[in-house]
Amino acid sequence: MTSPSEQAHRTQGKDVGLTLCPSCKQLMPHAENHCSRCGSILALRDYSSLQKSWALLITAAILLIPANIYPITIFTSQGHTRHDTIFTGITHLIDLDILPIAVILFTASILVPILKICGLTIYLLAISFRLPISKKRLMVGFHVIEWIGRWSMLDLFVISITAALVNMGQLLDARPGPAATAFALVILLTQVAAKVLDTRLLWDRLESKDDAN
Amino acid sequence: MKLLTEEKCADTSVTLCRSCDLVIRKRALPSSVRALCPRCHTAIYDAPYCSLNGMLALCLTALIFFVPANLLPVIELHFLGSIRTTTIFEGAMAVANQGYWVVAIAVLTSAVIAPGLLLLSVLSQILIIKYRLEVPFFRDILKRLLKYHGLLSQLTMLEIYMISIFISVFQLRDYTDIHLEMGTFCFAMLFLVTLFLQREYHLEHMWSLLND
Ligand SMILES: [Zn+2]
Ligand SMILES: [Zn+2]
User: Please, are residues A127 and A202 in contact by the beta-carbon 8 Å criterion?
Assistant: First the structure.
């Protein structure tokens, strides 16, 4: 049994005929088609967003493989050329005793993309197959994913600065490798996958009994 | 039923959570406090305090730093008697010239184009609200700017670029003699002022100015 106050606590916009404008967040009756303030198309729920999000996420997961096995930087010093993948680049930093930067780059370039793809997969699985996972925890994880995702850009910025500075032929030279494009696409696709998803679907689809979790 | 929903829409004391669609009763908030959704902890609204003049000042300051931050060298490298410098733009062009145009577009967009457009957009929004809100043509422009504000601010990654400048310096100091330049200072100022501007700016509040 639930108390009346808990019941009220749970009322959703779609139950009382209201919806938020997706672009300007104005409250609108969902009988309307367009927002009266900004003219955006109103949608009570965007069911196609689930498929779009899955498609983007799967593409990103596939691209994560070339992003990690191909070299991301090609560094020449005194005639000796190193091909560094994301991972060997970081171990190289550890060898050079620049541990704090190795940790930052490991987090931004390896941990964050993997956590993002796994997190979004769990999230989409929970919606698609109604998995009994605490919705509150899923939602907190989702906000973390949205926020940390952009930090993966760090590695690409570092590569572009280094490549512009260091081009002195056989003596000292740095250039990006084929993994750079794959990595950039992984960041882009996972960000879009999180962006297009209509998160309200999670709260409609899972069993209402674990609402309190 | 129709009457009931219309009545509820006019009632500004109620809102919905954008993440989970929960109906939320609004309460007055002290400034700098943010209301979270009780069910999913998404930020819902905060006390709408934004001073247009304060934002205008921050916005103009940021625009003044924007030009030198992008044109002056951020890093200088000394190697066997030769000196090399790079600007943010040259960094992006260097990867583009080596065939990595996806990377170049990502870098240019998030470090140069999006921050620049964001500042210009906020400046135009403030000027329209202050002087031209009554003119339908400018109202329409304001509407468009507000619609794309969220996207622009998400694409703006000044803080991440700031940190990558320092990382590059650390990575290269084992090979060569490397210095931070005037561009880095301007970029740091641009980053700080933009940060304060984005704290001051409230999209919902800007939208609400269109209502009356
Ligand atoms: Zn709207
Ligand atoms: Zn919520």
Answer: yes
Residue pair A34/A170 in contact (Cβ under 8 Å)? The answer is no
CATH of domain A10-44: 2.30.30
CB contact under 8 A, B5 and A17: yes
For A70, residues 6+ apart whose C-beta sits below 8 A from its C-beta are A85, A177, A178, A179, A182
Q: What is the pTM of this model?
A: 0.86
Quote the tokens at residue A92: 């190289």
* Closest Cβ opposite residue B18 in set A20, A140, A171: A20
Residues of chain A with CATH 2.30.30: 10-44
- Taking the CA of residue A100 and the nearest CA in chain B, the distance in Å comes to 10
Q: What is the ipTM of this complex?
A: 0.85
State the Cα–Cα distance between residues B190 and B182, nearest whole angstrom. 12
A48 C-alpha to ligand 2 centroid (Å): 21
Q: 3-state DSSP call for residue B24?
A: strand
In 3-state terms, what secondary structure has residue B161?
A: helix
> What is the tens place of the pLDDT at every residue in A83-137?
999 999 999 889 888 888 999 999 999 999 999 999 999 999 988 888 888 888 8
Q: List Cβ neighbours of A149 (8 Å cut-off, separation of 6 or more).
A: A112, A116, A187, A190, A191, A194
